[in-house]
Design a protein that fits this description.
The chain has 83 residues and is an alpha+beta fold. The protein is 12% helix and 28% strand. It starts with 6 loop residues before the first strand and ends in a 20-residue tail after the last helix.
Length: 83
Amino acid sequence: MAEAGVRIASDALQGVETATTVEVRDGDRVVTDGPFAETREILGGYYLLDVPDLDAALEWAARCPGATRGKMEVRPVMEFDIP
């Protein structure tokens, strides 16, 4: 990915036991130790790629070592209009 020039960023994440969750309730910040949801699947890291379309993203995802040991979820980045 780096050699092809499509990788923007990538990082591994520490385990869910290190997670801290933040939410705002009635204008107050609430901080909770631990992940936000009970689940068997966890996010172990991410790759941020600059590719032309979903087909290219899927091709790169299939090349990641994690795809042979787990699942790779592919999503576009949300872009917001600035008012």
